[in-house]
């Protein structure tokens, strides 16, 4: 059995991801990390949120599972080595501890803490006799990112590097009109064909976004993962 103290609650008002982490416990008698870890991330609205701080769990001296530890790091930029469980399972990366009967957790994290807007998680098991497992296979949020959006040459461009944008993705304007994305001639940016019309209003981007107008952009991948919204103002 365990004794769990309640987490401290802080209030903040910044763009934030809500990440749901679910997993299965290891088989009884095995010193193993949790299995089947799943990570589902969405933007948290409204922006006023409660920030989760780590709980403290005090296990008794027995050989049963006493609880689980969840670790988090920002997802590296494109071209950097992927994170391993050894990178993640360190005290400085611990975000919460769970009791033995808890196999899910809702994390709330400010996106400004990472250049990619994404995070990677690993979960370990600890036991009442002091033993600890290694970490589970790292799982990332992998949301598409609206990187450096600009309106120029009659359409929208966004940087492709570290964007997690998949082929077949669409850009959504003001939560309504969808436009398919494609690579530009340099292969370093995604763009929309100047002649392509929106899915609802049947307008090109040049006609939809008038000079001086500000719109909200989101990107949706074919796997339905949706980016954090980002504003764009057409200056010319």
Explain the layout of strands and helices.
Elements: E1 2-5, E2 9-13, E3 16-24, E4 35-43, E5 48-52, E6 56-59, E7 65-74, H1 85-88, E8 94-99, E9 104-110, E10 119-127, E11 132-135, E12 139-140, E13 150-152, E14 155-159, E15 170-173, E16 177-180, E17 182-183, E18 189-191, H2 205-208, E19 214-220, E20 230-233
Antiparallel strand pairs: 1-6, 2-5, 3-4, 3-9, 7-8, 7-10, 10-11, 10-12, 13-14, 14-18, 15-16, 15-19, 17-18, 19-20
Features of this protein?
Immunoglobulin-like, 2 domains, 5-stranded antiparallel beta sheet, 2 helices, disordered N terminus
Low-confidence stretches: 1-13, 47-51
Query: Rg to the nearest angstrom?
Result: 21 Å
Could you give the order of the helices and strands? EEEEEEEHEEEEEEEEEEEHEE
Tell me the structural class: mainly beta
DSSP, total strands: 20
Shape: elongated
Q: On the 0-100 scale, what is the average pLDDT? A: 87
**Largest sheet entry:** 5 strands, antiparallel
Q: Can you tell me the number of structural domains?
A: 2
Please bin the fraction of helical residues: under 10%
Query: How many DSSP H or I helices?
Result: 2
Strand content: 35-45%
**Straight-line distance between termini:** 65 Å
